[in-house]
Amino acid sequence: MNLHAIGIDLGKTVFHLVGLSHAGEVVVRKKFSRTQLLRFTANVQVDLIGMEACAGSHFLGKALREQGHEVRLMPAQYVKPFVKTNKNDFIDAEAIAEAVSRPSMRFVPIKTDEQLDMQSLHRVRERWIMRRTAVVNQIRGLLLERGITVRTGRCHLDAALPNILEDGSTPLSGTLRCLLVELKRELEQLAGHIEQAEALIQRAAQQSEACQRLDAIPGIGPLTATALIAAIGNGEAFRKGRDLAAWMGLVPREPSTGGKQKLLGISKRGNGYLRKLFVQGARAVLQFREMQSPGLRKWLEELSARTHYNVVGVALANKLARIAWAVLARGEAYRPPVLADSLTGLQMEPV
């Protein structure tokens, strides 16, 4: 059987497949298990196989590529406009098959096992951090109900909690003391898990030449470098650094119409975790901008003189993302921006 495009709607155990001919007509409509699906695709000739980028898509994409197929993953929001009528699994598969053949469609690169491992490590670490924050807030709330206030911040709670538990004069019942001891033990366990995860990330960054190059950029450390490589690899999915910054949601939203441009706050699209890391790194650079290279320091001073501090932080995060793309995509080492003469102004590295 020779098909032009196949769209696969993914599920946990059931997969719906629709095949289109070169004329765009539906000629195959089948439902498979994962084993049946791979057996079917092994005996079919097709130009393109499309899937939505979601859980399980990278595994199945690699399995189909091993069979010799051209596999492309797409963001789900880009497939939705091709759904013609009410939603069901076969209609979704048909929309995927039609969307994958569009020349202007944007695709998601299939991640390697190393990228998936690092992405999983970051996600688990982030969940542990959120859980630790929830436990800290719960302890502070329980103490506040008994008239004991602790300053905001985990370090203040870590310093005050042992003394509160050991002080017999504090108005705490035996039940509450037992609960606080258990919550304190949970905090210690979470702290140990987070330290182990960060040690693994640090080790992976030391063993990666790309991470070492990214680590030279101000505001980017092992955490941001490994998260960026896990998300975009070598950056080949983006034509330029501006595309990466837009994908991370670090560019203004634009509802322009009638020939009049109107810019709003940042779009906050794409990978929110990466955006958070880059904004935090940018704020750290702003805090210690006197220690930066002359070119970057001059650029920050001029921008800070005419706009708000938070706007400067986001603008710097945008610039750092573009520089990171240039370092990854071109395989070059980071070169700090330099000052030019007064006629040409500040010369930044092209990204």
**What does the main sheet amount to?**
5 strands, mixed
Please provide the count of β strands: 7
**Which class of secondary structure composition applies to the elements?**
alpha/beta
Strand content: 5-15%
**What is the mean pLDDT?**
90
> What is the alpha-carbon Rg in Å?
26 Å
How do the strands of the widest beta sheet line up side by side?
A: 3-2-1-4-5
Question: Based on CA inertia axes, which overall geometry fits?
Answer: globular
Helix content: 40-55%
Low-confidence stretches: 341-351
Number of domains: 3
Q: Number of helical segments? A: 13
Overview of the molecule:
- The protein is α/β, with parallel strands linked by helices.
- It has three domains: 2-100, 2-Layer Sandwich (Nucleotidyltransferase, domain 5); 113-207; 209-347, no CATH class.
- α9 packs antiparallel against α11 and α10 crosses α13.
- Helices cover 54% and strands 11% of the residues.
- It has helices at 34-41, 57-66, 76-79, 89-100, 113-145, 154-166, 174-207, 209-215, 222-232, 241-247, 272-287, 294-304, 309-330; strands spanning 2-9, 15-20, 26-32, 45-52, 71-74, 338-339, 346-347.
- 28% of the residues are buried.
- The strands form two sheets. A five-stranded mixed sheet has the order 3-2-1-4-5.
- β4 (45-52), α2 and β5 form a beta-alpha-beta unit.
- The longest helix has 34 residues, at 174-207.
